[in-house]
Hints:
Chain A is globular, with a radius of gyration of 13 Å. By secondary structure, chain A is mostly beta strands. Chain A is built from no helices and eleven strands. With 114 residues, chain B is mainly beta. Chain B has no helices and eleven strands. Chain B has strands spanning 4-5, 10-14, 19-25, 32-38, 45-51, 56-59, 62-67, 72-77, 86-93, 103-104, 108-113. In chain B, strands 2, 4, 5, 9, 10 and 11 form a six-stranded mixed beta sheet that branches. Chain B is globular and about 40 Å long. Chain B starts with a strand and ends with a strand. At the A-B interface, strand 4, strand 5, strand 9 and strand 10 of A face strand 4, strand 5 and strand 10 of B.
Amino acid sequence: DAGVIQSPRHEVTEMGQEVTLRCKPISGHNSLFWYRQTMMRGLELLIYFNNNVPIDDSGMPEDRFSAKMPNASFSTLKIQPSEPRDSAVYFCASSQRTSAHNEQFFGPGTRLTVL
Amino acid sequence: DQQVKQNSPSLSVQEGRISILNCDYTNSMFDYFLWYKKYPAEGPTFLISISSIKDKNEDGRFTVFLNKSAKHLSLHIVPSQPGDSAVFFCAASAQNSGNTPLVFGKGTRLSVIA
């Protein structure tokens, strides 16, 4: 199994530009989570989907952030326009309801730098 | 306000000794707890978990203890090995299901010195 796949691994962009982060969950998993890691706030949930449907997006910081999951094997997190304070590592994770330990499987993350 | 707190940002332990990582939580609705380990440039990986109906769960060198009345859990690593050097995150959820989000602490960086 390839695990959760995220792309790109690194993104450097200028303030005001649109950024799109991509995630492919583990096949057969029906939940997908987007987290953001910063020094100040640690790992925080942005949004999660069950069966491709957004369940809770209360962690999305502003309207500049949006996420979609058009099918079971793909999700995007978009920031438009990006700002320097969006610089962080963004993780995607997937899970299934019947997981043995309630665990989520994380991708390697996308390190975003907004100049 | 942090619902899951790891008050020690870092911990240094000698190889072969015990490492004890602590975690406190405030939300009494949490009933399932997990520990994740994270190496640089990688995503967090699941290590061990415990349900609120238990007070101890052991897996090899790793043992998690839960004190529900104190809203406190700890991860013991015995013996500690240099390969254990990583950031350890405590996480909690309010439902025993893989479909619910996790609330994470800020992590404790463990350094095991050879």
